[in-house]
Amino acid sequence: MATKHEQILNYIESLEVGEKISVRRIAKELQVSEGTAYRAIKEAETQRLVSTIERVGTIRIERKKKENIERLTYAEIVNIVDGQVLGGRNGLHKTLTKFVIGAMQLEDMMRYTEADNLLIVGNRAKAHEYGLRAGAGVLVTGGFDVTDAVKRLADELELPVISTSYDTFTVAAMINRAIYDQLIKKDILLIEDIVVPSEETHALQESDTVDRYHELNERTSHGGFPVVDEAGKLKGIITAHDVIGCDSGERIDKVMTKDPIAGTMKMSVASAGHRMIWEGIDLLPIIGDSGYLEGIISRQDVLKALQTAQRQPQQGDTIDDLVKNQLQLSGDGELTFTVTPQMTNAYGSLSSGAFTAMLSEAAIQALKARKRREGVIEHVTIFFLKPVQLESVLSARTAILDISRKSAKIDVEVSVDEEVVGKALMTLQFLDR
């Protein structure tokens, strides 16, 4: 049976797009406390089911698929630019496809403005009206108001007219930053992207016997299985190690590992991989808020997903991506790196974050090149010996000091013009199948 939290989320998802909701309404209709309703609405906002706007309230918006996450709704634009809705509130849930900056003659501006666009313009009354009639929402910069006729037209067409105190250039930069952040989020692999769903997961009941484990093991060739109760809640996990020497009639709940480590759908694949390595587990059950089994992933699933992600084109680059793109392998096996403006701190020298990213990437690439193995950083000791200036070319030399079945210790030395500027000692755990 679903919890109150899940019931509220399901209820919100069932509402019509554009419908307004409130904590008090949810609490009254579903007979829950206002605190429970508030927490569920915040979760719905995280899941991009609703958007909350100051002076307007919370509205149900279209849940965008991950491949279209860079498309924003008018409601999200209001929050990005700290805007005020002057008209057309009923259209805030709509998704926009293009931005048009009205910095040209009116006739030329309208040639570029179409339905589902956002026209960004100053206090030009005719442009506001023409934009709405073309099917576009209007964002008025500079804090200007619009005429009553434009407000009535916006309400009639259900197309938002939004006012913001920022200038046009700042607004464009803010929207571009929001889209860029969403592109980065789009590239982050989550458990929900690779999980084997519960309906396809082979699970055992607490009341099953060891004989049932062997039967399932022989049929699927899997070595481990989650254990659930009659309601589907995760209770444990059982592997080949747990059943060694056990009688075939022994109950599963007597030999399983209780309270196993579990993940959630919103956990990143990288985090799950780290957790599985550090805890020494090969199977990670995935659960919902109330502990119900939602699926399962294996270490092999994680490795395959991370290798696939590395081959995907990047659309929104993080600092790590920028560092990785700068690294080049020289003829003698050294990695070189040029310091760009994005990599500097307030004093114009290489930031500690970018330097750490370079050292980490050098160690990982050294491990791949020499041992053909994937690894994740477990421990780092870094010595920043000298500041590194903008546009300097760094050279990284790596040496594998020790290697065991599960980990490796790597020394990284970084120099500029043959002068050592930093060193690091890193321990990497192997990410094997």
Largest sheet: 6 strands, antiparallel
Radius of gyration: 28 Å
Assigned CATH superfamily of the largest domain: HprK N-terminal domain-like
Number of structural units classed as domains:
4
Low-confidence stretches: 311-315
Average pLDDT, all residues: 83
How far apart are the termini?
Answer: 36 Å
Secondary-structure class: alpha+beta
Please tally the β strands and state the result. 21
The appropriate CATH architecture of the largest domain is: 3-Layer(aba) Sandwich
Query: Can you tell me the overall shape?
Result: flat
Proportion of residues in helical segments: 25-40%
Total helix count?
16
Enumerate the strands of the largest sheet in spatial order, edge to edge or round the barrel.
16-17-19-20-21-18
Top CATH class of the largest domain: Alpha Beta
Secondary structure elements and their pairing?
Elements: H1 4-14, E1 20-21, H2 23-30, H3 34-46, E2 50-53, E3 57-60, H4 74-80, E4 84-87, E5 98-101, H5 106-112, E6 117-121, H6 125-133, E7 137-140, H7 148-157, E8 161-163, H8 168-187, H9 191-194, E9 196-197, E10 204-205, H10 210-220, E11 224-228, E12 234-239, H11 240-243, H12 252-255, E13 257-258, H13 269-279, E14 283-287, E15 293-298, H14 299-309, H15 319-326, E16 328-329, E17 335-338, H16 352-371, E18 375-384, E19 393-403, E20 407-416, E21 419-430
Parallel strand pairs: 5-6, 6-7, 7-8, 10-11
Antiparallel strand pairs: 1-3, 2-3, 4-8, 9-15, 11-12, 12-13, 14-15, 16-17, 17-19, 18-21, 19-20, 20-21
Walk me through what this model shows.
The chain is of the alpha+beta class and 433 residues long. It folds into 4 domains: 1-63, Arc Repressor Mutant, subunit A (Orthogonal Bundle); 65-184, Udp-n-acetylmuramoylalanyl-d-glutamate--2,6- Diaminopimelate Ligase, Chain: A, domain 1, CATH 3.40.1390; 192-307, Roll (CBS-domain); 319-430, Thiol Ester Dehydrase, Chain A (Roll). Helix content is 36%, strand content 25%. The chain is built from 16 helices and 21 strands. It has helices at 4-14, 23-30, 34-46, 74-80, 106-112, 125-133, 148-157, 168-187, 191-194, 210-220, 240-243, 252-255, 269-279, 299-309, 319-326, 352-371, and strands spanning 20-21, 50-53, 57-60, 84-87, 98-101, 117-121, 137-140, 161-163, 196-197, 204-205, 224-228, 234-239, 257-258, 283-287, 293-298, 328-329, 335-338, 375-384, 393-403, 407-416, 419-430. The protein has a 6-stranded antiparallel sheet with strand order 16-17-19-20-21-18. It has a 5-stranded mixed sheet with strand order 4-8-7-6-5, sandwiched between helices. The chain has a 4-stranded mixed sheet with strand order 10-11-12-13. The chain is flat. The model is unreliable at 311-315 (pLDDT under 50).
